[in-house]
Amino acid sequence: MLRSRLTIADVAARAGVSVATVSRVVNGRYGVSEATAAKVRRVIDEMGYASSLVAQSLRSERTGVIGVLMSRIEPFGTEILKSVSDTLQDSGYELIVFCPTSEHAEGWERRSVARLGGTLVDGSLLIAPTVVDVASDHPVVAVDPHVGASHLPTVAAENHEGAVAATQHLIELGHRRIGFLGGRTDLESARQREAGYRAALTDAGRPVDPDLVQHGDFTEAGAEAPARRLLALPDRPTGIFAANDRSAMYVLRLAAELGLDVPGDLSIVGFDNVPETLMTNPPLTTVDQSIRALGSEAIQLLLELIDRDAQSALDGAETPEPIHRLLPVHLVVRGSTAPPRSPHPSR
Protein backbone atom coordinates (compact mmCIF):
# COMPACT_ATOMS: atom_id res chain seq x y z
CA MET A 1 0.00 0.00 0.00
CA LEU A 2 1.34 3.43 -0.95
CA ARG A 3 2.07 5.78 1.92
CA SER A 4 0.02 8.96 1.82
CA ARG A 5 1.87 12.26 1.57
CA LEU A 6 2.98 13.80 4.85
CA THR A 7 1.14 16.95 5.82
CA ILE A 8 1.82 19.82 8.16
CA ALA A 9 -0.80 18.32 10.48
CA ASP A 10 1.25 15.09 10.71
CA VAL A 11 4.29 17.10 11.77
CA ALA A 12 2.27 19.03 14.33
CA ALA A 13 0.83 15.84 15.82
CA ARG A 14 4.28 14.18 16.10
CA ALA A 15 5.84 17.31 17.64
CA GLY A 16 2.90 17.91 19.99
CA VAL A 17 2.35 21.47 18.80
CA SER A 18 -0.28 23.29 16.78
CA VAL A 19 -0.38 23.47 12.98
CA ALA A 20 0.10 27.22 13.30
CA THR A 21 3.35 26.68 15.21
CA VAL A 22 4.71 24.34 12.52
CA SER A 23 3.72 26.87 9.86
CA ARG A 24 5.64 29.61 11.68
CA VAL A 25 8.75 27.43 11.87
CA VAL A 26 8.55 26.35 8.21
CA ASN A 27 8.15 29.94 7.04
CA GLY A 28 10.73 31.45 9.43
CA ARG A 29 8.25 33.60 11.29
CA TYR A 30 8.52 34.97 14.83
CA GLY A 31 6.52 33.83 17.85
CA VAL A 32 8.08 30.40 18.49
CA SER A 33 10.68 29.70 21.17
CA GLU A 34 14.01 28.37 20.00
CA ALA A 35 13.51 25.13 21.89
CA THR A 36 10.13 24.51 20.26
CA ALA A 37 11.45 25.51 16.84
CA ALA A 38 14.37 23.09 17.22
CA LYS A 39 11.97 20.30 18.18
CA VAL A 40 9.75 20.99 15.15
CA ARG A 41 12.75 21.07 12.80
CA ARG A 42 13.97 17.76 14.23
CA VAL A 43 10.58 16.16 13.59
CA ILE A 44 10.52 17.61 10.07
CA ASP A 45 13.91 16.02 9.35
CA GLU A 46 12.82 12.69 10.82
CA MET A 47 9.58 12.58 8.87
CA GLY A 48 11.00 13.98 5.62
CA TYR A 49 8.35 16.68 5.41
CA ALA A 50 8.61 19.41 2.76
CA SER A 51 6.04 22.14 2.41
CA SER A 52 4.10 22.25 -0.87
CA LEU A 53 5.72 24.49 -3.47
CA VAL A 54 2.29 25.62 -4.55
CA ALA A 55 1.22 26.46 -1.01
CA GLN A 56 4.51 28.25 -0.38
CA SER A 57 4.15 30.32 -3.53
CA LEU A 58 0.60 31.32 -2.66
CA ARG A 59 1.81 32.62 0.70
CA SER A 60 5.00 34.39 -0.37
CA GLU A 61 4.59 34.81 -4.17
CA ARG A 62 7.94 32.99 -4.45
CA THR A 63 8.70 29.29 -4.73
CA GLY A 64 12.48 29.41 -4.47
CA VAL A 65 12.63 27.12 -7.51
CA ILE A 66 14.25 27.69 -10.93
CA GLY A 67 13.19 25.63 -13.94
CA VAL A 68 15.76 24.42 -16.49
CA LEU A 69 14.03 23.36 -19.71
CA MET A 70 15.75 21.46 -22.52
CA SER A 71 14.64 19.31 -25.45
CA ARG A 72 16.96 16.43 -24.51
CA ILE A 73 19.80 15.52 -22.17
CA GLU A 74 23.02 15.99 -24.18
CA PRO A 75 26.57 17.28 -23.51
CA PHE A 76 25.92 20.98 -24.15
CA GLY A 77 22.80 21.14 -21.97
CA THR A 78 24.40 19.01 -19.28
CA GLU A 79 27.34 21.42 -18.96
CA ILE A 80 24.91 24.34 -18.75
CA LEU A 81 23.01 22.52 -16.01
CA LYS A 82 26.21 21.85 -14.04
CA SER A 83 27.15 25.53 -14.22
CA VAL A 84 23.68 26.64 -13.14
CA SER A 85 23.77 24.25 -10.19
CA ASP A 86 27.22 25.48 -9.13
CA THR A 87 26.20 29.14 -9.41
CA LEU A 88 23.08 28.59 -7.31
CA GLN A 89 24.97 26.96 -4.43
CA ASP A 90 23.92 28.60 -1.13
CA SER A 91 21.53 30.92 -2.99
CA GLY A 92 18.40 29.46 -1.40
CA TYR A 93 17.11 28.37 -4.81
CA GLU A 94 16.47 24.83 -5.94
CA LEU A 95 16.38 23.43 -9.49
CA ILE A 96 13.82 21.45 -11.41
CA VAL A 97 14.87 20.01 -14.79
CA PHE A 98 12.16 19.48 -17.38
CA CYS A 99 12.38 17.97 -20.85
CA PRO A 100 9.75 16.41 -23.15
CA THR A 101 9.63 12.68 -23.71
CA SER A 102 9.87 13.23 -27.47
CA GLU A 103 13.20 14.81 -28.47
CA HIS A 104 11.74 16.47 -31.53
CA ALA A 105 8.37 17.44 -30.04
CA GLU A 106 7.43 20.58 -31.93
CA GLY A 107 6.67 23.52 -29.67
CA TRP A 108 8.12 21.86 -26.55
CA GLU A 109 9.26 25.28 -25.37
CA ARG A 110 5.73 26.72 -25.10
CA ARG A 111 4.31 23.62 -23.43
CA SER A 112 7.17 23.31 -20.96
CA VAL A 113 7.07 26.96 -19.90
CA ALA A 114 3.28 26.78 -19.53
CA ARG A 115 3.45 23.63 -17.39
CA LEU A 116 6.08 25.08 -15.04
CA GLY A 117 4.47 28.50 -14.84
CA GLY A 118 1.93 29.81 -12.41
CA THR A 119 2.97 28.68 -8.95
CA LEU A 120 5.77 26.16 -9.57
CA VAL A 121 8.85 28.24 -10.47
CA ASP A 122 10.08 31.80 -10.05
CA GLY A 123 11.85 31.76 -13.42
CA SER A 124 12.99 29.45 -16.22
CA LEU A 125 16.02 28.88 -18.42
CA LEU A 126 15.33 27.62 -21.94
CA ILE A 127 18.35 25.69 -23.24
CA ALA A 128 18.92 26.03 -27.00
CA PRO A 129 15.26 26.61 -27.90
CA THR A 130 14.13 26.58 -31.52
CA VAL A 131 10.99 28.54 -30.59
CA VAL A 132 11.22 31.80 -28.66
CA ASP A 133 7.75 33.33 -29.08
CA VAL A 134 6.93 31.99 -25.63
CA ALA A 135 4.31 33.62 -23.41
CA SER A 136 5.09 33.37 -19.72
CA ASP A 137 3.87 34.67 -16.40
CA HIS A 138 7.41 34.50 -15.00
CA PRO A 139 10.87 35.58 -16.22
CA VAL A 140 12.43 33.36 -18.90
CA VAL A 141 15.98 33.52 -20.30
CA ALA A 142 16.91 31.69 -23.51
CA VAL A 143 20.43 30.21 -23.60
CA ASP A 144 21.91 29.90 -27.11
CA PRO A 145 18.54 30.25 -28.88
CA HIS A 146 18.63 28.64 -32.30
CA VAL A 147 16.71 31.49 -33.92
CA GLY A 148 18.77 34.41 -32.61
CA ALA A 149 17.68 37.31 -30.43
CA SER A 150 14.01 37.70 -29.63
CA HIS A 151 11.61 39.34 -27.23
CA LEU A 152 13.05 37.00 -24.59
CA PRO A 153 16.30 37.90 -22.83
CA THR A 154 19.10 35.79 -24.33
CA VAL A 155 22.64 34.66 -23.57
CA ALA A 156 24.74 33.25 -26.41
CA ALA A 157 28.33 32.88 -27.60
CA GLU A 158 30.07 34.68 -30.46
CA ASN A 159 29.44 31.89 -32.97
CA HIS A 160 30.63 33.83 -36.02
CA GLU A 161 33.89 34.93 -34.42
CA GLY A 162 34.61 31.41 -33.20
CA ALA A 163 34.11 29.94 -36.67
CA VAL A 164 36.44 32.55 -38.15
CA ALA A 165 39.12 31.60 -35.60
CA ALA A 166 38.71 27.86 -36.31
CA THR A 167 39.00 28.32 -40.07
CA GLN A 168 41.89 30.79 -39.81
CA HIS A 169 43.76 28.26 -37.67
CA LEU A 170 43.58 25.68 -40.48
CA ILE A 171 44.54 28.29 -43.09
CA GLU A 172 47.56 29.37 -41.03
CA LEU A 173 48.69 25.75 -40.73
CA GLY A 174 48.85 25.62 -44.53
CA HIS A 175 45.63 23.81 -45.39
CA ARG A 176 44.06 24.85 -48.68
CA ARG A 177 41.29 22.28 -49.00
CA ILE A 178 39.25 22.98 -45.86
CA GLY A 179 35.91 21.25 -45.48
CA PHE A 180 32.99 22.47 -43.40
CA LEU A 181 30.59 20.12 -41.63
CA GLY A 182 27.70 22.30 -40.49
CA GLY A 183 24.57 21.89 -38.44
CA ARG A 184 20.92 22.40 -39.31
CA THR A 185 20.63 25.40 -41.61
CA ASP A 186 17.46 26.59 -39.86
CA LEU A 187 19.40 27.21 -36.63
CA GLU A 188 21.01 30.57 -35.96
CA SER A 189 24.15 29.10 -34.37
CA ALA A 190 24.68 26.87 -37.43
CA ARG A 191 24.16 29.80 -39.81
CA GLN A 192 26.60 31.99 -37.89
CA ARG A 193 29.28 29.28 -37.84
CA GLU A 194 28.97 28.69 -41.57
CA ALA A 195 29.12 32.43 -42.19
CA GLY A 196 32.33 32.60 -40.14
CA TYR A 197 33.87 29.76 -42.15
CA ARG A 198 33.02 31.49 -45.41
CA ALA A 199 34.25 34.87 -44.17
CA ALA A 200 37.63 33.46 -43.12
CA LEU A 201 38.17 31.85 -46.53
CA THR A 202 37.13 35.03 -48.33
CA ASP A 203 39.44 37.19 -46.19
CA ALA A 204 42.31 34.81 -47.09
CA GLY A 205 41.52 35.13 -50.80
CA ARG A 206 40.24 31.55 -51.02
CA PRO A 207 37.16 30.56 -53.02
CA VAL A 208 34.46 28.58 -51.25
CA ASP A 209 34.15 25.19 -52.95
CA PRO A 210 30.51 24.01 -52.70
CA ASP A 211 31.67 20.37 -52.57
CA LEU A 212 33.51 21.13 -49.34
CA VAL A 213 30.40 22.48 -47.57
CA GLN A 214 28.20 19.76 -46.08
CA HIS A 215 25.48 19.88 -43.46
CA GLY A 216 24.48 17.56 -40.64
CA ASP A 217 22.23 18.26 -37.68
CA PHE A 218 24.69 18.74 -34.77
CA THR A 219 24.40 15.03 -33.84
CA GLU A 220 26.92 12.25 -34.42
CA ALA A 221 24.38 10.20 -36.36
CA GLY A 222 23.57 13.22 -38.52
CA ALA A 223 27.27 13.77 -39.22
CA GLU A 224 27.79 10.36 -40.82
CA ALA A 225 26.54 10.95 -44.37
CA PRO A 226 28.03 14.44 -44.88
CA ALA A 227 31.37 13.42 -43.32
CA ARG A 228 31.62 10.40 -45.62
CA ARG A 229 30.85 12.64 -48.60
CA LEU A 230 33.70 14.98 -47.65
CA LEU A 231 36.24 12.20 -47.20
CA ALA A 232 35.14 10.37 -50.37
CA LEU A 233 35.96 13.35 -52.61
CA PRO A 234 38.68 12.63 -55.19
CA ASP A 235 40.49 15.72 -53.92
CA ARG A 236 39.45 15.35 -50.29
CA PRO A 237 40.05 18.08 -47.72
CA THR A 238 43.15 17.98 -45.54
CA GLY A 239 41.34 19.93 -42.85
CA ILE A 240 37.72 19.93 -41.63
CA PHE A 241 35.99 22.43 -39.40
CA ALA A 242 32.97 20.74 -37.83
CA ALA A 243 30.45 23.17 -36.40
CA ASN A 244 30.12 21.30 -33.11
CA ASP A 245 32.16 18.81 -31.12
CA ARG A 246 29.75 15.90 -31.52
CA SER A 247 30.14 16.11 -35.30
CA ALA A 248 33.89 16.55 -35.01
CA MET A 249 34.21 13.47 -32.80
CA TYR A 250 32.37 11.43 -35.42
CA VAL A 251 34.83 12.65 -38.09
CA LEU A 252 37.69 11.51 -35.84
CA ARG A 253 36.23 8.00 -35.63
CA LEU A 254 35.50 7.92 -39.36
CA ALA A 255 39.06 8.95 -40.17
CA ALA A 256 40.36 6.05 -38.06
CA GLU A 257 37.95 3.68 -39.83
CA LEU A 258 39.25 4.85 -43.22
CA GLY A 259 42.88 4.51 -42.18
CA LEU A 260 43.56 8.25 -42.16
CA ASP A 261 46.03 9.60 -39.64
CA VAL A 262 44.88 12.58 -37.57
CA PRO A 263 46.46 15.08 -37.80
CA GLY A 264 48.96 13.84 -40.43
CA ASP A 265 46.41 13.11 -43.16
CA LEU A 266 43.50 15.11 -41.79
CA SER A 267 43.23 17.98 -39.30
CA ILE A 268 39.93 18.40 -37.44
CA VAL A 269 38.52 21.34 -35.47
CA GLY A 270 35.29 21.29 -33.45
CA PHE A 271 33.19 23.87 -31.66
CA ASP A 272 31.91 23.88 -28.02
CA ASN A 273 34.76 22.38 -25.96
CA VAL A 274 32.68 19.76 -24.17
CA PRO A 275 34.69 17.68 -21.65
CA GLU A 276 34.76 14.64 -23.96
CA THR A 277 37.08 16.49 -26.36
CA LEU A 278 39.97 15.89 -23.94
CA MET A 279 39.45 12.13 -24.16
CA THR A 280 39.45 11.68 -27.93
CA ASN A 281 42.49 10.24 -29.72
CA PRO A 282 44.07 12.65 -30.41
CA PRO A 283 42.52 15.32 -28.16
CA LEU A 284 40.32 17.61 -30.24
CA THR A 285 41.23 21.14 -31.23
CA THR A 286 38.06 23.12 -30.69
CA VAL A 287 36.47 26.52 -30.15
CA ASP A 288 35.75 27.02 -26.47
CA GLN A 289 32.47 28.85 -26.19
CA SER A 290 32.76 28.68 -22.39
CA ILE A 291 29.62 26.64 -21.83
CA ARG A 292 30.01 26.97 -18.07
CA ALA A 293 30.20 30.76 -18.47
CA LEU A 294 27.02 30.69 -20.57
CA GLY A 295 25.21 28.86 -17.77
CA SER A 296 26.54 31.13 -15.05
CA GLU A 297 25.72 34.30 -17.01
CA ALA A 298 22.24 33.03 -17.85
CA ILE A 299 21.27 32.13 -14.28
CA GLN A 300 22.64 35.40 -12.92
CA LEU A 301 20.61 37.29 -15.52
CA LEU A 302 17.51 35.28 -14.63
CA LEU A 303 17.91 36.07 -10.92
CA GLU A 304 18.27 39.77 -11.79
CA LEU A 305 15.05 39.60 -13.82
CA ILE A 306 13.17 37.83 -11.03
CA ASP A 307 14.14 40.60 -8.60
CA ARG A 308 13.45 43.29 -11.21
CA ASP A 309 9.98 41.95 -11.95
CA ALA A 310 9.16 41.83 -8.26
CA GLN A 311 10.26 45.43 -7.84
CA SER A 312 8.43 46.53 -11.00
CA ALA A 313 5.23 44.97 -9.66
CA LEU A 314 5.61 47.01 -6.47
CA ASP A 315 6.47 50.24 -8.30
CA GLY A 316 4.06 49.77 -11.20
CA ALA A 317 6.96 50.32 -13.61
CA GLU A 318 6.89 49.14 -17.22
CA THR A 319 9.00 46.14 -18.23
CA PRO A 320 12.16 47.34 -20.04
CA GLU A 321 13.40 45.99 -23.35
CA PRO A 322 14.86 42.44 -23.28
CA ILE A 323 18.56 42.00 -22.61
CA HIS A 324 20.80 40.17 -25.11
CA ARG A 325 24.29 39.18 -23.99
CA LEU A 326 27.05 37.73 -26.19
CA LEU A 327 30.01 36.00 -24.55
CA PRO A 328 33.48 35.78 -26.13
CA VAL A 329 34.98 32.52 -27.43
CA HIS A 330 38.55 31.34 -27.97
CA LEU A 331 40.35 28.61 -29.86
CA VAL A 332 41.88 25.71 -27.88
CA VAL A 333 44.63 24.03 -29.92
CA ARG A 334 45.21 20.34 -29.17
CA GLY A 335 46.51 17.31 -31.03
CA SER A 336 43.95 17.01 -33.84
CA THR A 337 45.44 19.78 -35.98
CA ALA A 338 48.83 20.15 -37.66
CA PRO A 339 50.27 21.34 -40.99
CA PRO A 340 49.18 19.08 -43.88
CA ARG A 341 51.56 16.27 -44.68
CA SER A 342 51.33 16.99 -48.43
CA PRO A 343 49.95 20.49 -48.93
CA HIS A 344 47.85 21.03 -52.01
CA PRO A 345 49.41 23.38 -54.59
CA SER A 346 48.11 26.90 -54.79
CA ARG A 347 45.06 27.40 -56.92
Q: What does this protein structure show overall?
A:
This protein is an alpha/beta fold and 347 residues long. The protein has 11 helices and 12 strands. The strands form 2 sheets. The protein has a 6-stranded parallel β-sheet, with helices on both faces. It has a 6-stranded mixed β-sheet with strand order 7-6-8-9-10-12, with helices on both faces. The longest helix has 25 residues, at 291-315. The model is unreliable at 343-347 (pLDDT under 50).
What is the structure about, briefly put?
This protein is an alpha/beta fold. The chain has a 6-stranded parallel β-sheet with strand order 2-1-3-4-5-11, sandwiched between helices.
Annotate the secondary structure layout.
Layout (H helix, E strand, L loop, with lengths): L7 H8 L3 H8 L7 H14 L5 H8 L4 E5 L5 H13 L6 E5 L9 H9 L6 E5 L12 E4 L10 E4 L1 H14 L5 E5 L5 H16 L9 E3 L4 H12 L7 E4 L2 H13 L9 E6 L12 E4 L2 H25 L8 E4 L2 E3 L15
Helix pairs in contact: 1-2, 1-3, 5-11, 7-8, 9-10
Which terms summarize this structure?
single chain, 40% helix, disordered C terminus, six-stranded parallel sheet, six-stranded mixed sheet, 11 helices, alpha/beta
Please state the average pLDDT score: 85
- Taken from the alpha-carbon principal axes, the silhouette is elongated
Order of helices and strands: HHHHEHEHEEEHEHEHEHEEHEE
Low-confidence stretches: 343-347
Number of strands: 12
Give the neighbour order of strands across the main sheet.
2-1-3-4-5-11
Radius of gyration: 26 Å
SS summary, helix count = 11
What is the straight-line distance between the termini? 78 Å
Strand content: 5-15%
Structural class: alpha/beta
Largest sheet: 6 strands, parallel
The residue fraction in helices comes out at: 40-55%
